[in-house]
Amino acid sequence: SLLKTPSRTPKFQWAGQTYKIEAFLVGLKNRSHLQINSLEDAKAYRVGTIRGYHADHFLQEAGFTTDENLILSVKYQRMWRLLFKRRIDFVLTNNLALGREIGSIGLDVDMVKQYFAVKNFPNELHIATNLSTDKKTVRLLSEALKSLKRGGRYQQIIDKWGL
């Protein structure tokens, strides 16, 4: 699945939505003195994300800068370790990545909490193809996804993976 963003929309053919994510700023639970009620409030802190990801562009468009409050990592492993070592205050992430990434590097997901839900972050994951993909192939993919959803198999997959 590919996150459908305004800049990606014209670059791909979109065969169908597979899932919706929730984006939020997370931080360590034991740092509850950190208070944010808006993305603007978060500018007073160090926020981490992955270089080149949509979250990077989103935060920069919101006024975050690498000179001041935006910490970019090349790999998610480094980003999470920075959070756990208190070198950054928050991470912009989503509900799919959070537990999987933290757990994969041996850190405790129960040590983090959601501080702020980022409502205006793109949230749709889609099956996408190259612009040169044959229209018939895209239509077949789209119909197959619709069939999975109608027949209940899609929900079984979602349930199996705890989504």
Task: Describe the 3D structure.
The chain has about 160 residues and is α/β, with parallel strands linked by helices. It contains six helices and eight strands. The strands form two sheets. It has a five-stranded mixed β-sheet with strand order 5-4-6-3-7, sandwiched between helices. Strands 1-8-2 form a three-stranded antiparallel β-sheet. The two termini are about 15 Å apart.
Structure characteristics:
163 residues; alpha/beta; five-stranded mixed sheet; 6 helices; 8 strands; 33% helix; globular
Short description:
Strands 5-4-6-3-7 form a five-stranded mixed sheet, sandwiched between helices. The protein has a three-stranded antiparallel sheet with strand order 1-8-2.
What's the arrangement of strands in the largest beta sheet? 5-4-6-3-7
How would you spell out the order of helices and strands?
EEEHEHEHEHEEHH
Poorly predicted regions = none
Portion in helices: 25-40%
Number of helices: 6
Strand content: 25-35%
N- and C-termini, Cα separation: 14 Å
Q: Summarize the main sheet.
A: 5 strands, mixed
| Average predicted local confidence, pLDDT | 93
The structure class reads alpha/beta
Strand runs, count? 8
Approximate shape = globular
